[in-house]
């Protein structure tokens, strides 16, 4: 077998081509590595940008929190101010067990506020449409008990948008009530609302089966037709709760009420000006003016029991939805 030999010129040409091929491959490899490094640098920059945006967003939320809860609330904060101050407890949103305005949290905050030896007095800062009659009654009773335990310390209510139903129930226990001229106030009544679906099952071809021990155990079942006995029973319950509400208002407000005013205890609402004429409130004012007029101070220390800041941000939507659920699915006074 004989091999094929290359001429020196051909061998040189082949070597040159091989070198060129290797150089091209090395150049491509270098370009590839450069591209990889460039992408990594870009990715780092993107990560840094994302981190900066995330950190900036958190910082912005914290600043917004400080602005809303400190600046807009007239200097209210959890820390004790250096100078004279009053204690403040906020009652906001529907009053219900499980909501932010529940009897346990509000009563605990009020107790701490009354026990603060440096506080010139206590402000109940309200914006609430009311809610559970039981939760409202518990807070009302706690305020009366704290006033008896601390006769030297006064408590006044300052209401903003709404002071209605259960919120008014609570406020009537305080020494004075201040509102804005356009505040919606009053609503001294009780309501129970639900739905009936008696025809829905028939249309769907569904048979409902309910077994009870006790003749009235399934009373007010939405899938069972409402009877006259059902209507009489719920009317009796509502009247009893309404009487409790009226007694509480009379106890708290006394002869300041204009008993001759039409519809005083019939569940209606009035503006702040109208409520003032009817003796439901004592004067017009806001938090800043009341702090000065009632206690001679400019600052307040907030004793409202709130969840942690991040927890509040993450649970804001869920809490709002839950508050609305409680407000519309419980027996309410209004």
TrEMBL record:
CDD domains assigned: S49_Sppa_N_C
Keyword set, alphabetical order: Hydrolase, Membrane, Protease, Serine protease, Transmembrane, Transmembrane helix
One term of GO molecular function: serine-type peptidase activity
Keyword Transmembrane helix tagged: yes
Domain Peptidase S49, first and last residues per copy: 151-292
Pfam entry (one): Peptidase_S49
Transmembrane spans: 51-72
GO biological process: proteolysis
Classification via InterPro entries: ClpP/crotonase-like_dom_sf, Peptidase_S49, S49_SppA_C
Entry keyword Mitochondrion: no
Top-level taxon of the source organism: Bacteria
Similarity comment text for this entry: Belongs to the peptidase S49 family.
Family annotation (PANTHER family): PEPTIDASE S49, PROTEINASE
Protein name per UniProt: Peptidase S49 domain-containing protein
């Amino acid at each position: 077998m004989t091999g094929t030999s290359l001429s020196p010129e051909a061998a040189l040409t082949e070597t040159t081509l091989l070198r060129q091929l290797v150089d091209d491959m090395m150049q491509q490899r270098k370009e590839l590595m450069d591209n990889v490094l460039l992408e990594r640098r870009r990715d780092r920059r993107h990560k840094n940008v994302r981190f900066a945006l995330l950190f900036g967003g958190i910082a912005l939320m914290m600043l917004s929190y400080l602005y809303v809860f400190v600046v807009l609330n007239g200097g209210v904060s959890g820390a004790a101010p250096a100078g004279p101050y009053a204690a403040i407890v906020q009652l906001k949103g529907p009053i219900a067990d499980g909501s932010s305005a529940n009897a346990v949290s509000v009563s605990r905050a009020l107790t701490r506020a009354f026990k603060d030896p440096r506080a010139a007095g206590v402000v109940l800062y309200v914006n609430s449409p009311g809610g559970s009659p039981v939760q409202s009654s518990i807070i009302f009773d706690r305020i009366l008990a704290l006033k008896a335990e601390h006769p030297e310390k006064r408590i006044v209510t300052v209401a903003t948008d709404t002071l209605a139903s259960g919120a008014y129930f609570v406020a009537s226990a305080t020494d004075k009530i201040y509102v804005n001229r356009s505040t919606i106030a009053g609503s001294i009544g009780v309501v129970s609302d639900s739905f009936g679906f008696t025809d829905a099952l028939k249309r769907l071809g569904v048979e409902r089966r309910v077994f009870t021990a006790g003749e009235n155990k399934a009373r007010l079942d939405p899938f069972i037709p409402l009877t006259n006995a059902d209507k009489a029973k719920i009317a009796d319950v509502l009247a009893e709760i309404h009487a409790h509400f009226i007694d509480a208002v009379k106890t708290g407000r006394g002869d300041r009420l204009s008993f001759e005013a039409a519809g005083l205890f019939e569940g209606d609402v009035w503006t702040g000006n109208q409520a003032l004429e009817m003796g439901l409130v004592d004067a017009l004012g806001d938090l800043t003016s009341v702090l000065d007029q009632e206690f001679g101070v400019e600052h307040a220390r907030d004793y409202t029991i709130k969840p942690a800041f991040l927890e509040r941000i993450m649970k804001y939507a869920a809490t709002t939805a839950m508050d609305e659920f409680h407000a519309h699915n419980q027996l309410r006074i209004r």
